[in-house]
């Protein structure tokens, strides 16, 4: 199986890396090479059908973007582009859900349902490049409207030029648009990139990372922070291939496959283990893609900022899957009205946005319920903050626990983490019934199922507890670790990376695991 963790990909990337940097002074040729290798990787991972669907979709979005620039009916073209994108996403992502439910309804009415039996493939990355397309069209529309208004006002030529420099139009030419949507480092599971610099989306060095400027690099492109890139790759392999793989094979998957056969404490540790597995899997993947971007001269947004240290559920979504949460903020929550229509309408907008976030992850009811749980948690937190503000009489009522010192902040982290952990049961289960079976085993299996006395299992529990304790310390000194890496002699650094890599290869489970978020 061709994967970002496979030897075949490593060899392909090394060959491409050397060819790519042979044209260091020609970013246009580098972009073309990047387009070719991205489509080749998509083909090797998902087949020619996925390549064809993405290619046709990219052409359609390019044509619509062109019309937004030149047409007087800009909003109509933008709306058409969004509708086409959502239809494309819905057909491929939610067909199975609608097919199953319509089929059951037809059976109830004793009608023929054989026409609904056709299978539709799920194209690689459709959820991610669809969101990139919507953000691109909306950004282009907004900027072209501003540009047109500036042209219509009676300004001097210098004033027009200054105004337009402040509000550039991020229009991508044909080959650039194809590269933006197909870039192999973002196609499978994000991060969801934007053409423009966006509040909340920053690279590993804290710099903005809009793709327009990077695809239109006028001078020679530079290899960015190679030591940091290699450190990220090694860290990602350890997180995804070794740790997440171990948790999945030996802990999480067996329990979720048959929760009735395990003691309540084993079910509880599997629930904790899944949250850690998901974080290690997805953050490891995201860091690996950021590293590939750096090695090719691109700054990609960091997707995580210590989400398991969040002191409330609002803070969690500022730290978890940041490229998605900022997208939801900018293209669902704010267009619905954001916080402009009063407190209660704000809560309604938040609930709608979070439920749609849940549905984006999957078409089954358990994802809807997971999104609804987070929506209600955020709304209840905001209501609690409002009550605390009114009781205390000052703004410190907001984030009440976090403002009461280290004890309150620690309590806030514990409450948030436990809410996230138990809500993820619905995320992991394939149906609501499966999730309820897990909770049933958690609450009742302490009576009739024996607790394991396997010393390795108990050791793993201690290791998990230790990881939760070490994690805050590592995050606090993350920047110092980065500085140490940059100052470390190259020979020592790369030898150390190789040693860690070999340790991961030896300790990791056999086989090449898939990435959890590639399924979304």
From TrEMBL:
Q: Could you tell me the membrane topology recorded for this protein?
A: Multi-pass membrane protein
Compartments where located = Cell inner membrane; Cell membrane
The residues forming the signal peptide are none
User: Which key words tag this protein in UniProt?
Assistant: Acyltransferase, Alginate biosynthesis, Cell inner membrane, Cell membrane, Membrane, Transferase, Transmembrane, Transmembrane helix
- Identify the metabolic or biological route this protein is part of: Glycan biosynthesis; alginate biosynthesis
Q: Give the UniProt record's GO annotations in the biological process aspect.
A: alginic acid biosynthetic process
Note the Pfam families from the entry: MBOAT
InterPro entries the record matches: Ac/AlaTfrase_AlgI/DltB, AlgI, MB_O-acyltransferase, MBOAT_fam
Write down the superkingdom of origin.
Bacteria
- Its principal location? membrane
Q: Where are the transmembrane segments?
A: 6-23, 35-65, 77-95, 116-138, 228-248, 342-361, 367-388, 400-427, 456-474, 494-518
E.C. number, please? Answer: 2.3.1.-
Q: Which GO terms describe its molecular function?
A: acyltransferase activity
Q: Name one GO cellular component term.
A: plasma membrane
Q: What class of enzyme is it?
A: transferase
The UniProt entry, under PANTHER family, shows: ACYLTRANSFERASE, TEICHOIC ACID D-ALANYLTRANSFERASE
The similarity annotation says: Belongs to the membrane-bound acyltransferase family.
Name of this chain's protein: Probable alginate O-acetylase
Q: What organism is listed for this UniProt entry? A: Moraxella equi
The gene for this chain is: dltB
């Amino acid at each position: 199986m061709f994967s970002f963790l496979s030897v075949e990909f490593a060899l392909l990337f090394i060959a491409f890396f050397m060819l790519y940097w042979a044209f260091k002074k020609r970013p246009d040729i580098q972009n073309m090479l990047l387009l070719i290798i991205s489509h080749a990787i998509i083909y090797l991972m998902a087949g020619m059908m996925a390549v064809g669907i993405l290619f046709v979709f990219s052409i359609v979005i390019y044509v619509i973007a062109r019309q937004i620039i030149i047409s007087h009916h800009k909003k109509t073209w933008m709306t058409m582009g969004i509708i086409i994108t959502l239809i494309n996403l819905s057909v491929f992502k939610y067909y199975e859900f609608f097919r199953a439910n319509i089929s059951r309804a037809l059976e109830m009415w004793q009608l023929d349902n054989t026409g609904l039996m056709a299978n539709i493939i799920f194209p690689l990355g459709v959820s991610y490049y669809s969101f990139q397309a919507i953000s691109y069209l909306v950004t282009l529309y907004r900027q072209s409207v501003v540009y047109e208004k500036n042209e219509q006002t009676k300004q001097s030529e210098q004033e027009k030029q200054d105004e337009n420099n402040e509000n550039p139009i991020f229009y991508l030419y044909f080959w650039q648009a194809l590269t933006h949507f197909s870039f192999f480092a973002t196609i499978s599971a994000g991060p969801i990139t934007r053409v423009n610099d966006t509040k909340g989306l920053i690279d590993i060095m804290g710099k903005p990372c809009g793709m327009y400027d990077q695809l239109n690099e006028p001078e020679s492109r530079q290899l960015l922070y190679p030591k940091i890139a290699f450190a990220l790759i090694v860290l990602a392999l350890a997180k995804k291939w070794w740790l997440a793989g171990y948790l999945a094979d030996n802990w999480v998957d067996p329990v979720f496959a048959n929760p009735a056969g395990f003691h309540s404490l084993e079910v509880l540790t599997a629930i904790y283990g899944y949250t850690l597995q998901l974080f290690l899997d997805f953050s490891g993947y995201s860091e690996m893609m950021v590293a590939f971007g750096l090695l090719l001269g691109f700054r990609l947004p960091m997707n995580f900022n210590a989400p398991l240290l969040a002191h409330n559920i609002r803070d969690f979504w500022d730290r978890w899957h940041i490229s998605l949460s900022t997208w939801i903020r900018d293209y669902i929550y704010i267009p619905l009205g954001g916080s402009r229509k009063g407190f209660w309408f704000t809560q309604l907008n938040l609930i709608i946005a979070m439920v749609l976030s849940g549905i984006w992850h999957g078409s089954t009811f358990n994802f809807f319920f997971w999104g609804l749980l987070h929506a209600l948690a955020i709304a209840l937190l905001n209501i609690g903050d409002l009550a605390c503000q009114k009781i205390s009489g000052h703004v410190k009522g907001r984030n009440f626990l976090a403002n009461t010192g280290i004890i309150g902040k620690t309590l806030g982290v514990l409450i948030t983490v436990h809410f996230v952990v138990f809500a993820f049961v619905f995320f992991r289960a394939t149906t609501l019934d499966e999730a309820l079976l897990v909770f049933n085993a958690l609450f009742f299996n302490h009576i009739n199922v024996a607790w394991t006395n396997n010393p390795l299992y108990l050791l793993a529990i201690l290791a998990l507890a230790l990881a939760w304790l070490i994690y805050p310390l590592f995050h606090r000194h993350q920047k110092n670790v980065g500085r140490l890496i940059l100052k470390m002699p190259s020979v020592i650094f790369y030898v150390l990376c190789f040693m860690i890599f070999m340790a991961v290869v030896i300790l990791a489970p056999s086989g090449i695991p898939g990435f959890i978020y590639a399924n979304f």
